[in-house]
């Protein structure tokens, strides 16, 4: 058994914003040659969704975290502390995020701020948590003389 410190709403929000910027940038690079042929709210949004699903799923499977989570010092873990598997991640990142983002309201994400275990809807249905990698330690503290 291992003890983790749960990541809260604002830490996760900042990580998510970094990830969204990353996904949009990757999509821009991939779709660069097709920009004149693809309407922004049509195929390009679908492409961003597909690239986002692949990004979140593969990064979380391989590293336990995305670029945003790396920067914020957080990662995804299963409730039973076993290794993240493809089925859990496809369920979390596909069905779970779809439910969390339902109708573009992102209520499943906002729920993290009210959940006692700091879980979004996609965490709850996939039995995962987002936790800090390092416990609180004194390694970032300094002593200042008075």
What brief labels describe this structure?
146 residues, mainly alpha, two-stranded antiparallel ribbon, 51% helix, globular
pLDDT < 50 stretches: none
Oligomer description: single chain
- Overall, the morphology is globular
Number of domains: 1
* Spatial order of strands in the largest sheet: 1-2
- The H/E string reads HHHEHHHE
Counted by DSSP, the helix tally is 6
Q: Calculate the terminal CA-CA distance, rounded to whole Å.
A: 42 Å
Mean pLDDT over the full residue set:
86
Largest sheet: 2 strands, antiparallel
Q: Which percent band covers the strand fraction? A: 5-15%
Structure commentary:
The chain is mainly alpha-helical and 146 residues long. The chain has one domain (3-134). It contains 6 helices and 2 strands, in the order αααβαααβ. It has a two-stranded antiparallel ribbon. The longest helix has 23 residues, at 9-31. The termini are far apart.
SSE topology sketch:
Elements: H1 9-31, H2 43-63, H3 67-72, E1 74-78, H4 86-100, H5 107-110, H6 121-126, E2 128-132
Antiparallel strand pairs: 1-2
Helix pairs in contact: 1-2, 2-4
Short summary:
InterPro entries: Pra-immunoreactive, RDD. With 146 residues, the protein is mostly helical.
